Every structure is written in C-alpha cells, then in structure tokens.
Amino acid sequence: MTKPKRKKKKQKQFPCNEFRNLKGSKRERLIAERKAKGLTQTQLGKLVGCSASMISSLELGKVNPSVEISIQLEEILSIPSFELFSDL
Q1: Distance of alpha carbon 24 from alpha carbon 82, whole angstroms
Q2: pTM for this predicted structure
Q3: According to DSSP H, which parts of 1-88 are helical?
Q4: What does the pLDDT look like over 16-45, one tens digit per residue?
Q5: Is 86 helix (H, G, I), strand (E, B) or coil?
Q6: Distance of alpha carbon 43 from alpha carbon 57, whole angstroms
C-alpha cells in the first residue's frame, strides 16, 4: 500500500517581489512601554491573556490587536491604545 501524494501548497502571488517581505511598521512605543515596566514578552502576555508570540507579533507590526487585547494593554501599561498603535 502506497501513501497518497501530498498536494503542494500554493504560494501567495505578490504583484512585485519588493513587497514580498514587507511587514507593518515596528511599534517602538509598545516595546518601550513594556521595557519601562520591566516586563518580558512572556510576562506581558500572561497579564494580557495571550501568548508571548502574540506580543511579539504586535510589536513587530505583523498583526493588529483585538479590542480585548488593546483594552488590556491600555490598563496594564497605563497608556491609550492610539499612542501604542499609532499606525492603526
């Protein structure tokens, strides 16, 4: 009995190669406020109720925060979300 062949994943087509690795703007203010409070990404993630990888993705601008995460970050870091996420 042979294994069925796997289908190859179709890669996303980009209109131009220069946009292939483009990410959102890095959120320096979020990083600075987290470090000013003396928190690691893991610690902040536990306080917010999400993973450290989600905090990393937020800081790198790869994802936008949900309303719940945004509210939690406002409360923990004591700064309005429009200052933390000025690119939204």
Answers
A1: 16
A2: 0.70
A3: 28-36, 41-48, 52-60, 67-77, 81-84
A4: 554 444 455 678 889 999 999 999 999 999
A5: coil
A6: 15
